[in-house]
Amino acid sequence: MTELDDLIKHLSMLPSVGPKSASRIAFFLVGSQKGFNESLSRLIGEIKEKVFPCPICGSYSETSPCPICSDPGRDQSLLCIVEQPQDVLTIQSIGAYNGLFHVLGGTLNPLEGIGADKLNIRSLVERVEKGSFKEIIFATNPTEEGDTTALYIKRLLERKGDFIFSRLASGIPIGGDLGFASRNTLMRSLRGRTTF
Amino acid sequence: MTELDDLIKHLSMLPSVGPKSASRIAFFLVGSQKGFNESLSRLIGEIKEKVFPCPICGSYSETSPCPICSDPGRDQSLLCIVEQPQDVLTIQSIGAYNGLFHVLGGTLNPLEGIGADKLNIRSLVERVEKGSFKEIIFATNPTEEGDTTALYIKRLLERKGDFIFSRLASGIPIGGDLGFASRNTLMRSLRGRTTF
Questions:
Q1: Class level of CATH domain A60-167
Q2: Which of B28, B43, B89 is opposite residue A7, by nearest beta carbon?
Q3: What does the domain layout of chain B look like in residue ranges?
Q4: CB atoms < 10 A from the CB of A103, how many?
Q5: CA distance B156 to B125
Q6: pLDDT reported for residue A182
């Protein structure tokens, strides 16, 4: 295999990069500035040393604990549970949430051998026992796995104290079209209807 | 700027990688195997040394001249002119062309200051003068720039010998729908209609 084929093979293993994009990127790199390739190469080579899971919430960070966990200005009574580190970024980007986060690292999936021990659930329970949380918000994806995982964790945490449990609303996306919504989405949006 | 932000910024400069894909890839790299990141980093860092333009046809290669130019088994009477090195791969992948290639490196674009001197046109003229080509196939894109560039080169080469000039057929894509074809595509496919 040539170096170019090998590069294309590696690039096509990245998420959201198909075989056509992989060759387009590889050809771009052959023709691009040497300095750009050197920076990109260095950043990729070092990223795992520079960025690591926060020991408290499990989100990716370059400091330990992460800036969110170590910010006393955030609402210490709110905990938002998400599946992946990038979900923290997504929620942070809307600028409307000022509580803390906990990253599970996935969802329960017994068929693929992902049990509770493979997720950051034990650390979550310990954190909830020691913390001063009042509300626990489930922001797992509205999928069967996300829903099951949220329900499992809710049952665990219910024994640990008197918390308000909530979850993100599901429904028709803003700007969306009823005709394109799935039956499940419509059902969920009907059940979760709000007065106005 | 953190290392993660810097990595996302670099990744989003790659072709066909938008800001959302760039963060998805960056998070994937934080969580992936160290060995994978090291290989990818090395491949990106070295690719410009390993892969370079063939001095004859301008296509990217890891040998000089490239395997196509140095293959005596290919039809030395056929020359296919393309815009970019990846176009050589695209045409090679269908396995139906056995002639030689010439890569222009772009199209004429006076508004952006891309004149004939910025493209591999001089080397093309010299190659055609010295070679034994009978047919010259234009495989530039069916865009205004591609068409103009093909016409410009055709006029240059007409003075150099008695060649057959041809171009790839344009028309409705196989599996396509007349209703989705643009007026120009329909006009081109009508003019280029074939008997059956």
A1: alpha beta
A2: B43
A3: 3-50, 60-167
A4: 25
A5: 8
A6: 83
